[in-house]
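Hi support team,

I've been running sequence recovery on a batch of backbones for a student project. Most finish fine, but this one hangs at about 90% for roughly twenty minutes before it completes. I'm not sure whether the input is malformed or the queue is just slow. I've pasted the structure tokens below so you can try to reproduce it. Let me know if you need the job ID as well.

Thanks,
M.K.
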């Protein structure tokens, strides 16, 4: 029996050896010459369409741009920067860098940065020129890896290192349809490769690792520049450049020429392409002929781009704000109907390619509805009275609200309203409608910061992870949010408390017409319908907002049911309007990419209001007239919660107190006795009210 097993094993080994040698000989004969390798044509391009599937937004590679140049015309700065970026040991190893594979595996396990494959320059050449970066089953990937290793060994034997490196630099994709260093140099800097500076060479060398992600025309320009600088520093550490050359390259201002690719809705399309590459890979997106049907409404997108450009020019003159962004979402589905990330995507001097719609910015008062919704959820009626009076919110600071820091060196906190005036007793309804700051901070305290964050996250806000840094200033825009998330979250109010996460791809088909993926609408209730309706009722109450905004304002459209909220950040760096009807939610941001302040006159409604109003009016022309569902009346038989702040039997009104005198903030409707003085805010709130009415302590 053992003899039989041994005999079979020997024969199996012989067969496998013969097969491997035959396979090796076959591969050896199929390796083309260098010119053939670098002239390889890519396959069928991926096409991205609008929501109808008929309007082509972008052909991912279109006409491939490639110019082959001799080894001598490729500058040393490009060669050395590429080695540092892609394969620093290229001239030492025999085609396979086992240390690099182990290092990449470790980084991928740790999920540090862009995923890596540990491939050498030779292996990358094999994949790009001969095999393709296909995504396949585990079995096919294993056989393909074997094939790659065999080809790598043979091609390293067949060609010199300089020949391999020359093929690589003429073959590798740099993004924006540019293949090879000459095409990349002309695409991004409008010059031949031989004229590239050290800094320009390092930037181009930073691209092949992830051409879509690091694209100078995409939304990761800061990360591209950081990668470029790291390459320069590593070149210095290896002795390729000296310290003076490094300093000059780090300080060199790079002038990238505007992208000339034909793209409709560029910021939107770049988002789509980044998603495709992250899921299917660069090679598949460029060669596999995918058909992508997005959610974009091209008619609305055209209007959005025209209006953003129009009002950016107006706001530059009036308010010193040269940029704007707009997002429109269908709250019933979550589909992104329009997305404009800047006033002009192709204006690289003003960083027009930076997508403000997906960037983190402080929302100002546009965050307030989440705190009010959390308070309503806890049981506070919209008739609840709060005092809009000068109040100190740091319990360790004096009640007079005149100090800068407490005894521990922490900042005191006594915000004012935008106009510097205080209005005394106001209802939650009027405080939200008029965007009053002091009552809003009190509302956040009553609602609870944690509960408010929980609610905001459940509605779609994704940027509040580090909760320890958020205090009561959160309600005034103390945390950064994304415009796209904010519009989506307001869509929950529009949709009666049901959330539909935003998305931009309806379906993806293969070149053969097979369905690869399709988005299914799955609504989830995250807010009670009564609370959603109450917020909507307040934000659409033009009478309630008119004492501050006037009866005729940009948020009011006669004959249309519209709910809206403004937001302005400290020093007027950001101006927002977020609003909605039952069928569309629209958000507008206005400001400057570099955080330069606008003039004070450019508060939210002034700078963003006209743009928001004109766009949502156009959007509503495409939908049937719909009305909001009205909330049920909310009643409470308790002082402060019933719209009264003094007893009905009290004639002289001398016994006026803060809400914390009457209410346990965590259980406002309870009639149980509680100790007011245990609440850390009671002392300062009570003093502020008594002082406002000149009442004794």
């Amino acid at each position: 029996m053992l003899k039989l097993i041994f005999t079979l094993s020997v024969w199996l080994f012989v067969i496998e050896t013969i097969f491997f040698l035959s396979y090796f000989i076959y591969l050896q004969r199929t390796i083309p010459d260098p010119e053939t390798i670098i002239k390889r044509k890519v396959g069928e391009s991926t096409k991205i369409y609008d929501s109808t599937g008929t309007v082509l937004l972008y052909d991912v590679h279109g006409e491939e741009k490639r110019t082959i140049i001799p080894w001598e015309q490729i500058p040393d700065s490009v060669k050395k920067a590429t080695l540092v970026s892609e394969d620093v040991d290229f001239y030492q190893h025999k085609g396979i860098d086992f240390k690099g594979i182990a290092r990449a595996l470790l980084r991928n396990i740790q999920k540090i940065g862009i995923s890596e494959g540990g491939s050498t320059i030779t292996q990358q050449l094999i994949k790009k020129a001969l095999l393709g970066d296909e995504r396949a089953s585990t079995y096919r990937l294993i056989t393909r890896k074997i094939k790659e290793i065999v080809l790598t060994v043979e091609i390293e034997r067949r060609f010199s290192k300089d020949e391999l490196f020359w093929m690589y630099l003429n073959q590798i994709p740099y993004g924006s349809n540019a293949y090879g260093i000459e095409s990349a140099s002309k695409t991004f800097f409008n010059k031949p490769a031989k004229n590239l500076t050290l800094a320009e060479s390092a930037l181009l060398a930073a691209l092949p690792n992830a051409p879509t992600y690091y694209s100078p025309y995409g939304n990761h320009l800061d990360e591209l520049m950081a990668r470029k600088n790291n390459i320069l520093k590593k070149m210095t550490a290896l002795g390729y450049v000296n310290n003076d050359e490094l300093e000059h390259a780090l300080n060199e201002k790079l002038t990238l020429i505007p992208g000339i690719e034909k793209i409709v809705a560029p910021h939107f399309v770049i988002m789509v392409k980044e998603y495709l590459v992250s899921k299917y890979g660069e090679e598949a997106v460029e060669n596999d002929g995918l058909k992508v049907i997005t959610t974009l409404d091209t008619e609305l997108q055209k209007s959005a781009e025209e209006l953003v450009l129009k009002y950016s020019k107006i706001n530059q003159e009036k308010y010193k704000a040269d940029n704007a962004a707009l997002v429109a979402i269908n709250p019933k589905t979550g589909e992104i109907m329009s997305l404009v990330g800047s006033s002009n995507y192709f204006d690289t001097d003003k960083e027009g390619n930076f997508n403000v719609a997906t960037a983190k910015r402080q929302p100002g008062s546009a965050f307030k509805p989440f705190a009010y919704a959390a308070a309503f959820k806890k049981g506070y009626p919209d008739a609840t009275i709060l005092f809009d009076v000068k109040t100190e919110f740091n319990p360790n600071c004096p009640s007079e609200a005149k100090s800068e820091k407490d005894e521990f060196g922490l900042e005191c906190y006594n915000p004012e309203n935008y106009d510097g005036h205080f209005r005394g007793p106001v209802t939650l309804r009027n405080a939200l409608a008029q965007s009053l700051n002091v009552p809003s901070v009190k509302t956040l305290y009553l609602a609870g910061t944690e509960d408010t964050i929980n609610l905001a996250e459940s509605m779609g806000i994704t940027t509040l992870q580090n909760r320890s840094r958020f205090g009561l200033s959160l309600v005034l825009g103390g945390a950064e949010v994304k415009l796209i998330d904010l519009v989506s979250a307001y869509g929950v109010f529009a949709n009666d408390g049901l959330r539909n996460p935003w998305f931009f791809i309806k379906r993806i088909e293969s070149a053969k017409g097979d369905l690869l993926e399709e988005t299914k609408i799955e609504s989830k209730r995250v807010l009670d319908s009564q609370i959603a309706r109450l917020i909507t009722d307040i934000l659409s109450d033009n009478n309630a907002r008119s004492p501050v905004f006037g009866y005729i304002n940009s948020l009011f459209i006669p004959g249309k049911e519209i709910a809206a909220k403004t937001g302005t950040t400290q020093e007027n760096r950001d101006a927002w309007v977020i609003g909605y009807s039952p069928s569309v939610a629209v958000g507008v941001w206005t400001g400057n990419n570099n955080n330069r302040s606008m003039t004070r006159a450019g508060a939210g409604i002034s700078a963003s209001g006209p743009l928001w109003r004109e766009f949502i009016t156009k959007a509503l022309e495409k939908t049937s007239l719909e009305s909001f569902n009205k909330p049920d009346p909310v009643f409470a038989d308790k002082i402060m919660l019933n719209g009264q702040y003094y007893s009905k039997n009290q004639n002289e009104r001398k016994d006026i107190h803060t809400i914390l005198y009457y209410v346990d903030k965590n259980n406002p409707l309870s009639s149980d006795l509680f100790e007011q003085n245990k609440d850390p805010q009671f002392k300062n709130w009570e003093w502020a009210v008594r002082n406002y009415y000149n009442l004794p302590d």
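--
Follow-up from support: It reproduced on our side and the slowdown came from queue contention, not your input. Residues 108-116, 136-140 have pLDDT under 50 and may be disordered. No action needed from you.
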